[in-house]
Write a structure and sequence with these properties.
single chain; Glutaredoxin; 202 residues; globular; four-stranded mixed β-sheet; alpha+beta; 4 strands; Glutathione S-transferase Yfyf (Class Pi), Chain A, domain 2
Length: 202
């Protein structure tokens, strides 16, 4: 298997899960300028990361890749067996992907929507407030838990990756103590450390 990634992007979650499942893999860093070039677009027409290549199978989209890896290697239990437990993992994976990540995109791409600097500043400010609200929801979910659903799953590396973005953009969520504890625990995880080092993030 080969993972194409951009350091620190959402592909970090897939990188961590590859470490957790313990199967052989290789990685290929993709520069921002390469994302929109024909060779990479042939793999991922959206010009985004991650892309996972497994033999003749090419898969894009973080949530799909994370589920595929968990299904491929069920031993670590990153996607539970019972329908209800799986639904819980998918609920919080969806929250990270469709709510937190999508909202963060407004900060990363504010200049795409307008050239008006004042409007960009307003958009970023309101988006930061929305993110704090969303983070508060998941902070409540983490009460008394080490992992989002109570057991380690594919949702956890996605949340960790997004929390790194929050720190990078200086979004103040220091009052959300459960999230701070979760982040610290992920930072101490052996697989996380390997992925961070490989991506030049530690």
């Amino acid at each position: 298997m080969k993972l194409y990634y951009l350091p620190g992007a959402c592909s970090l979650a897939s990188h961590i899960v590859l470490e957790w499942i313990g199967k052989p893999y290789e990685t290929q860093v993709v520069g921002r300028d390469e994302l929109k070039q024909p060779p990479y677009l042939a793999l991922n027409p959206a010009g985004a990361v991650p892309t996972l290549v497994d033999g003749d199978f090419v898969l894009t989209q973080s949530a799909a890749i994370l589920e595929y890896l968990a299904e491929l290697s069920p031993e670590p239990g990153l996607l539970p067996e019972s329908p209800r437990e799986r639904a819980e993992v998918r609920r919080w994976l969806g929250f990270c992907n469709a709510d937190l990540h999508r909202t963060f995109a407004l900060i990363f791409t504010a200049g795409y929507y307008t050239d008006n600097a004042e409007f960009q500043q307003q958009l970023v400010s309101k988006t930061e407030s929305k993110l704090v609200q969303l983070f508060s929801i998941i902070d409540k979910q983490l009460e008394g838990k080490q992992w989002i659903t109570g057991t380690r799953s594919i949702a956890d590396p996605y949340l960790y990756t997004i929390l790194r973005w929050a720190r990078g953009k200086k979004i103040d969520i220091t009052s959300l103590k459960n999230l701070q504890t979760f982040f610290a625990g992920m930072e101490n995880d052996a697989g996380v450390k390997v992925a961070l080092q490989a991506q030049g993030l530690s």
